[in-house]
Design brief:
Chain A is α+β, with helices and mostly antiparallel strands and 328 residues long. Chain A has helices at 12-21, 34-39, 75-79, 82-87, 89-96, 101-106, 109-114, 120-123, 165-171, 275-281, 288-298, 311-327, and strands at residues 5-8, 25-28, 47-50, 59-61, 67-70, 175-180, 183-188, 211-217, 228-233, 244-253, 256-265, 272-273. Chain A has twelve helices and twelve strands. The radius of gyration of chain A is 19 Å and the shape is globular. Chain B starts with 20 loop residues before the first helix and ends with a helix. With 217 residues, chain B is α+β, with helices and mostly antiparallel strands. Classes of the chains: A alpha+beta (328), B alpha+beta (217).
Chain lengths: 328, 217
């Protein structure tokens, strides 16, 4: 690892000021992605600002009935929390589908949101990558793009967001709490990550000097708690990144779907919400025919590359299966 | 505090740079003082060195931060560079080489240790972030000559071949039982998936875990 300076921060404002002062400073939380990237030479920070002492680990119900999860709560703490298991089981399923127990014990909610793509061309510093080195080109576009995007990609980048947690968060309409030099703000989870466009180096809309403080799950998302499923399809049955994953959450009235939430992972630069399919499912009977039609609608606009064409079949099948399991 | 011959260990003289105040001022002092003296003494190479901020780079490399942590019940204070991982601290500074370096990227689990009772990959944890924490390594499981039940079970069920992944497997398995993730063979496999065994001793590892679980219930 290249050498870097280290600052232990115990206040959010101080951590933000460190970022303002030093353009090459990075925040360090669980470190499961950042330390790896530093070892690989993909990220070369001058300073790591250790935010682990910050009081951002609390998971608690708010006055309006939502669940506020501190950005430094670990993935395990969230997945095993009684209130998450009770009201938002989709989130537990998604988190436990990712990484390994050891990594989930280290990785934080904020860090999970900030994790970089697992595109091999991003990790390999001998290869061109617009995300790692803007303007150097995209190695994946004409390369071995088996893991890559179906939706919202650009000629500059076809990488996908690797997180499972993000897929559940976007499906459950989570809200992100952010603190920066100018104060605090909130944004919908679906607007946190961005599509690559011509700035693939920017994974999300967080400013460099801002800090995620919490993620809030709305009270009404608990309406889906009885009919959820997270289906992750990967090359081995555990401990691998998704080829395609589907988060499905249904609110049912008998056999009728009163409302649906659907999102996919492994198919876009951001967790990919499926609003057209959701609207179609609303008020329809839970049946294989309905689910097939929803999956077909969800795939509109999909574009495959040389080695990921199989995802055009895999993705709708995964949606169908996830909806069947969720509705059962 | 234990003392290991030849290893640099001392009580912390200052706290690690807190919120940039200490770190920042020290860095600025080095920069300013060396620049001033360089101008005063004027040999050209020194001025050039100052211009290129070589002194700053040297300071970056040389900067060590004291970290105090408890390993297997013994308190240690060691000065380390910020880039030193917990795994390297254990192996290189404390001579606890039971925790293995496999992939060094959080993919194989050979480096698994417990921090405050929770299993983690020590290769992805910076030593300095473990200030004040309690670490348990494979060396800390046995009580004297009395092996931990999980160590006994691994031997009994032949839960290894080459043995390189074994300390990580055992540390993970001990945590797994504590977490209560032993309801079925499938659950054990799923929650042991962070520990790779290239010899393929998986089925015997599961048997060892089941034996320990059953002996406790």
């Amino acid at each position: 690892m290249n050498p870097f300076q280290y600052t232990r921060s115990s206040a959010a404002t101080a951590a933000i000021q460190s970022l303002v002062r030093e353009p090459q400073a990075h925040l360090l939380a669980g470190g499961t992605n950042l330390i790896d990237l530093i070892k690989m030479g993909v990220v070369l920070p001058d300073r790591l600002v250790d935010i682990n002492p910050l009081p951002l680990k609390t998971i608690e119900k708010t006055a309006n009935g939502s669940l506020r999860i501190g950005a430094l709560a670990t993935n395990s703490e969230v997945a095993d929390h009684p209130l998450v298991l009770q009201d938002y089981p989709l989130l537990s399923l998604a988190i436990n589908a990712g990484a390994s127990p050891q990594l989930r014990n280290m990785a934080t909610v904020g860090g999970n949101m900030m994790q970089r793509t697992r595109c091999n061309y991003f990790f390999d510093t001998a290869m061109p990558c617009n995300k790692r080195t803007p303007g150097s080109g995209c190695g994946a576009l004409e390369g071995y793009n088996r893991m890559h995007a179906l939706f919202g990609a650009s000629d500059h980048c076809i990488a996908v967001n690797p997180s499972d947690m993000n897929v559940a968060m976007v499906a459950l309409d989570a809200v992100v709490h952010i603190k920066g030099p100018k104060g605090e703000r909130m944004i919908p989870f679906g607007e946190f990550h961005r599509l690559p466009g011509d700035r693939p180096e920017k994974d999300n809309t967080l400013e460099r000097t801002e800090l995620i403080t919490a993620v809030e799950l709305p009270a009404k998302a608990a309406a889906f708690k009885d009919h959820v499923h997270y289906l992750k399809v990967r090359d081995r049955t555990s401990y691998a990144f998704a080829l395609v994953s589907v988060a499905a959450a249904l609110s049912m009235d008998g056999s009728m779907i009163s409302e649906a939430r659907l999102a996919m992972g492994g198919v876009a630069h951001k967790p990919w919400r499926l609003p057209v399919a959701e609207a179609f499912l609303k008020g329809k009977p839970a049946s294989e025919t309905t689910f097939k039609q929803a999956a077909e609608l969800a795939m509109q606009g999909a574009k495959a590359y040389q080695y990921n064409k199989f995802k055009l079949t895999l993705a709708p099948n995964a949606i169908l299966q996830a909806l069947k399991t969720a509705s059962a | 505090m234990s003392t290991i011959p030849g290893k640099e260990q001392e009580k912390p003289k200052k706290q690690p740079a807190n919120d940039g105040v200490l770190g920042g001022s020290r860095r600025d002092f080095l920069k300013q003082s060396s620049l001033l003296s360089a101008i005063a003494l004027t040999p050209a190479p020194i001025i050039k060195a100052a211009e290129n901020q070589w002194d700053e780079k040297f300071a970056d490399v040389a900067e060590k931060i004291p970290v105090t942590l408890e390993v297997n019940g013994v308190s240690h204070t060691v000065k380390v560079e910020p880039r030193v991982t917990l795994l390297d601290l254990l192996r290189e500074e404390l001579n606890l080489t039971g925790s293995k370096k496999g992939c060094d990227r959080g993919q194989c689990g050979a480096c698994t240790v417990h921090v405050n009772g929770v299993r983690i990959n020590s290769c992805l944890s910076l030593a300095v972030t473990n200030e004040g924490k309690k670490i348990t390594t494979i060396e800390g499981l046995a009580t004297g000559d009395q092996l931990h039940p999980m160590q006994e079970a691994f031997i009994k069920h032949d839960g290894f071949q080459c043995g390189y992944c074994t300390s990580g497997q055992i540390m993970s398995a001990v945590a797994l039982v504590k977490e209560g993730r032993t309801q079925s063979r499938e659950q054990i496999s799923e929650f042991m998936s962070g520990n790779i065994c290239r010899c393929g001793a998986y089925s015997n590892i599961v048997k060892a875990i089941q034996e320990v679980k059953n002996s406790q219930s």
